[in-house]
Amino acid sequence: MTETLFYRLPWQSSSVYPGAHPGQMIGAGQLFKRHEPLIASPDPRRIDLRASILDPFSSYRVRVYQQQSSVNVYLLADMSASMGYADKQQTLLRFLLTAANSASDYGDKFGFIGCTERIEHRWLLPAGQHLGRVSALAKQLERLSFSGSANGLQNAAAFLPAERSLVFLLSDCHFPLPQLRAVLGSLQAHDVIPLVLWNQHEYAALPNWGLISFQDMENNATRTLFMRPALRQKIIAAYQQRQHDLKNTFRAFGSEPLFITEGYSTQTINRHLQQRVA
């Protein structure tokens, strides 16, 4: 059974379609927004007698309410070679299905943008309510061998709608910080939730002694090192510094990242989603 993401918006959706989130539109709802003249909102059922009596122009005043609206939810996925390491690809697939089903439960539209060296149309799914197409896409991705870089991330904003959307950015961020800044800069019109996938075997499970061969999965370059305690600690410290730098980069663009290092957990992501609107 697919679990549910309980995402909430700290902003108001501009969508005209009813949904589950705070909206900018006036319509059916329970949250009072303001008074308007009866002629502007001709619904006699909502005449406020007290406000009408106090009106200096002796006109009828009507209570109008904030409409709950829908939102477009997108998964912007890094599909580079490094995302094929260990369980990262399976985590991407699980989150894809979880996010799509959750958006459907909320009455929202869900879309997907998969990024490799460039953005290919076969990895594009415009926002809509189409769980069947999402399931078919997941099966295609499951058979795919991730390769190359994630340079396509820098062009992803062109495939997002003009109105503000909720964008989950799923990546291991194993690319230069200037490239990440360019990606985040292009996404500033949207609400971005970064989910950073790391696997502890990349750095924490290294032995204290022995020969270890490291391979860059994106350019296939290899390097053999003689591991020793001091070098092992240096590598771990480099990852810790990288995490610190990534956090500062995301925060500079108004986003708080979640580092997923111990396998996929919907509960962990939900706690992060609750904290961002607390």
Instruction: Please give the oligomerization state of what you see.
Output: single chain
What summary fits the major beta sheet? 6 strands, mixed
**Tally of separate domains:** 2
Can you tell me the overall shape?
elongated
First and last CA, distance: 28 Å
- SSE series: EHEEHEEHEHEEEHEH
Q: Tell me the CATH architecture of the largest domain.
A: 3-Layer(aba) Sandwich
- The total beta strand count reads 10
What's the arrangement of strands in the largest beta sheet?
Answer: 5-4-3-6-7-10
Protein structure class: alpha/beta
**Uncertain stretches:** none
Overall residue-averaged pLDDT value: 86
* Helix fraction bin: 25-40%
Discrete helix count: 6
CATH level 1 class label of the largest domain: Alpha Beta
The name CATH uses for the topology of the largest domain is Rossmann fold
Q: Give me the CATH superfamily of the largest domain.
A: von Willebrand factor, type A domain
The radius of gyration computed from the alpha-carbon positions, rounded to a whole number of angstroms, is: 24 Å
Strand content: 25-35%
Pfam families: DUF58 (PF01882)
InterPro entries: DUF58, vWFA_dom_sf
Protein name: DUF58 domain-containing protein
Domain DUF58: 61-243
What does this 3D model show about the protein?
It comes from Methylobacter tundripaludum (strain ATCC BAA-1195 / DSM 17260 / SV96). This is DUF58 domain-containing protein. Pfam families: DUF58. The chain is an alpha/beta fold. The protein has helices spanning 49-54, 88-106, 131-143, 177-186, 229-252, 266-275, and strands at residues 18-37, 61-69, 72-78, 109-115, 124-128, 166-171, 191-197, 210-215, 222-227, 258-260. The protein has two domains: 18-69, no CATH class; 72-275, Rossmann fold. A hairpin with an 8-residue loop joins β4 (109-115) and β5. α2 runs antiparallel to α3 (131-143) and α4 packs parallel to α5. The two termini are 28 Å apart.
